[in-house]
């Protein structure tokens, strides 16, 4: 059973701090990795995608991928109260098309 | 470009009825994927259509079906509704070519919230 595991949280950080969100996946053949943000009552919104080992930075967000450890992370620098949401890690399993496997999400709360 | 649109946004049905949900992808996207989101199970993949063909299917009963039209718009149908079908149904579009590269990042619509009584 291919699965993606995230800490459910909630993760609480003070405003201005770094929030670190983690995700592990079981399918070693997974090719593409995504982070989505979902506000309460809304649909998932893409934050970042990463395909290769290493770090990828976009503004305050950095995604990190380690395929050997089957581990993906998202760092949010200078966290803002508006970052408070559920963060979903998603993976495209190997040999599959159009199918994302999602973790259950980590709820992040940024306190002013 | 306009985003993914879904209709209707909210729906209330009773057990045993059937329902049809509609999704219009981002212009130029050829793939539409459908997901069910519930508090207990999270986001689960239903099926994916590409150029009017179902390419992939998740572990849902045959009561859940879908189709895609030549303009890439997609519909999903749930027959003989059960209480457990109450959920947020999301569609996502993807697959566009740019400079010879294929981009399969999925972008989600606002969802249809279905309540089965």
Unreliable spans of chain B are none
Distance between the termini of chain A: 40 Å
Poorly predicted regions of chain A: none
Sum up the overall morphology of chain A in one term.
Answer: globular
Give the mean pLDDT of chain A: 94
Please report the two chains with the greatest interface, counting residues with C-beta closer than 8 angstroms to the partner's C-beta.
A-B, 22 and 26 residues
What sequence of helices (H) and strands (E) makes up the elements of chain B?
EEEEEEEEEEEEE
Rounded to the nearest angstrom, the distance between the terminal CA atoms of chain B is 37 Å
- The percentage helix of chain A is under 10%
Structural class of chain A: mainly beta
Give me the number of helical elements of chain B: 0
Shape of chain B: globular
- Tell me how many strands of chain A there are: 11
Report the major sheet of chain B: 7 strands, mixed
Gyration radius over CA of chain B: 14 Å
Number of strands of chain B: 13
Number of helices of chain A: 0
Helicity level of chain B: under 10%
Instruction: Give me the strand/helix succession of chain A.
Output: EEEEEEEEEEE
Strand content of chain A: over 45%
| Average pLDDT over all residues of chain B | 93
Summarize the structure.
The complex is a heterodimer of chains A (112) and B (117). With 112 residues, chain A is mainly beta.
Descriptive terms for the model:
heterodimer; A: 112 residues; mainly beta; 11 strands; B: 117 residues; four-stranded antiparallel beta sheet
Description:
The complex is a heterodimer of chains A (112) and B (117). In chain A, the strands form 2 sheets. In chain A, strands 2, 4, 5, 9, 10 and 11 form a 6-stranded mixed beta sheet that branches. A 5-stranded antiparallel beta sheet of chain A has the order 1-3-8-7-6, with no helix packed on it. Chain A is 0% helix and 54% strand. Chain A is mainly beta and 112 residues long. Chain B starts with a strand and ends with a strand. Chain A binds chain B through residues 32, 34, 36, 42-46, 49, 88, 90, 92, 96-105, and chain B through 31, 33, 35, 42-45, 48-50, 55-56, 58, 88, 90, 92, 94-95, 104-111.
């Amino acid at each position: 059973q291919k699965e993606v595991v995230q800490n459910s949280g909630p993760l609480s950080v003070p405003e201005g701090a770094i929030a670190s969100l983690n995700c592990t996946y079981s399918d070693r053949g997974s090719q593409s990795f995504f982070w989505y943000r979902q506000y309460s009552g809304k649909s998932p919104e893409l934050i970042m995608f990463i395909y290769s080992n290493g770090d990828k930075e976009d503004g305050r967000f950095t995604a990190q991928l380690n395929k050997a450890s089957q581990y993906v992370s998202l760092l949010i620098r200078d966290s803002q109260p508006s970052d408070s949401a559920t963060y979903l890690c998603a993976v495209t399993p190997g040999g599959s098309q159009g199918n994302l496997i999602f973790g259950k999400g980590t709820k992040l709360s940024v306190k002013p | 470009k306009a985003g993914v649109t879904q209709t209707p946004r909210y729906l209330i049905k009773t057990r045993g009825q059937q329902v049809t949900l509609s999704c219009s992808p981002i212009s130029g996207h050829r793939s539409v994927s459908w997901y069910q989101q519930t508090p207990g199970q999270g986001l689960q993949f239903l099926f994916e259509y590409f150029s009017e063909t179902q390419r992939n299917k998740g572990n849902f009963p045959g009561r859940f079906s879908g189709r895609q039209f030549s303009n890439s718009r997609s519909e999903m149908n749930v027959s003989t509704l059960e209480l457990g079908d109450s959920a947020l149904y999301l569609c996502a579009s993807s697959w566009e070519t740019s400079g010879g590269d294929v981009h399969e990042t999925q972008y989600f619509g606002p969802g249809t919230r279905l309540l089965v009584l």
